[in-house]
Write a structure and sequence with these properties.
single chain, alpha/beta, 4-stranded mixed sheet, two-stranded antiparallel ribbon, 10 helices, globular
Length: 294
């Protein structure tokens, strides 16, 4: 059991448009047969798949002649923590609720206001405020429309393609990282933070801070009231997922060599280091990845 059974879920923070398919230009692919690398550029990046072809707010518009609802079956299925323990979609809702509950309180404690960001489930491809997203994009945060986008099939690919062991808390790590980018967006540190590649570049430092913020949330997850205290096995699942999407590991598996000058997210060791740093600190004050050696 991961969630407090009596916790009240707020499914309005997640939109499910998986039955909708929105046309648009396909995701631009990289050369050299590095399709998986292209995917990982967007997995946990917080940038845009490509510019153009935006739709602004999706709710209230139409897809294939049908209106896009602001809510879906999630509203009827995902009501309590017991539902989150039993239904995978509701589990994601529960994680999103907990993550945003933590950051709402953290912002308020410092005299600021946290603005909720919704998550959208989609299938195949759809237009976003950052351009066309596809199943190859992986989860990402779009600062233009303040949504986290997830093709839910990615969680399976995390195991099958990237070698992660999986487990529910691997999903929690992914989501908490993306919402870390939303926190960076609200605080003004995301803008211009993904332009410089390399193992100590601005892009890597930005991604590592989002990893650290994920660890901070994990440290405070039980205090939000949604989750029971985390186990060492759950933290191990998060660390395993962080290692699976390290630039060095991906490059070694896909191109047979590691080229640190092209890193955008950080090595497996770096990603684990900063998730752990956030978890131990329990505060975003412990997430200064922009000073010193990351």
């Amino acid at each position: 059991m991961t969630f407090n059974t009596g916790a009240n879920l707020d499914p309005s923070q997640v939109e499910d448009v998986r039955s909708s398919r929105i046309g648009g230009r396909g995701l631009a692919a990289g050369g050299g047969g590095l399709g998986i690398i292209v995917t990982l550029v967007w997995v946990l990046l917080g940038g845009s798949p490509q510019t153009g072809a935006t739709i602004g707010g999706l709710v209230g518009q139409t897809v294939g002649g049908q209106p896009v609802p602001a809510s879906s079956a999630l509203a009827s299925e995902c009501k309590t923590g017991a539902d989150a323990n039993a239904i995978e979609d509701c589990r994601v809702v529960g994680y999103v609720n907990s993550i945003q509950a933590y950051w709402t309180g953290e912002f308020a404690a410092s005299g600021q206001q946290y603005v909720l960001a919704k998550t959208r489930f989609f299938t195949d491809q759809m237009n976003t405020g950052c351009g066309v997203a596809s199943s190859a994009s992986g989860p990402f945060y779009c600062p233009s429309d303040k949504f986290v986008y997830i093709d839910r099939g990615f969680f399976d690919e995390l195991r099958s393609k990237f070698g992660a062991k999986g487990g529910p808390f691997a999903q929690a790590y992914i989501l908490a990282h993306e919402y870390g980018h939303h926190v960076q967006d609200l605080s003004g540190t995301l803008s211009g933070g993904t332009s410089q590649a390399g193992q100590a570049g601005q892009s890597v430092r930005t991604e590592l801070q989002a990893d650290c913020y994920a660890g901070v949330w994990a440290s405070n997850a039980a205090a939000t009231g949604y989750l029971v205290p985390l186990t060492s096995a759950q933290i191990a699942d998060a660390l395993d997922a962080a290692a699976a999407v390290g630039d060095d590991r991906i490059q070694q598996e896909t191109q047979g060599q590691v080229t640190p000058d092209t890193w955008t997210h950080g090595s497996s060791a770096q990603r684990q280091k900063w998730f752990t740093a956030g978890y131990k600190a329990g505060s975003p004050a412990g997430c200064d990845t922009f000073t010193g050696n990351p």
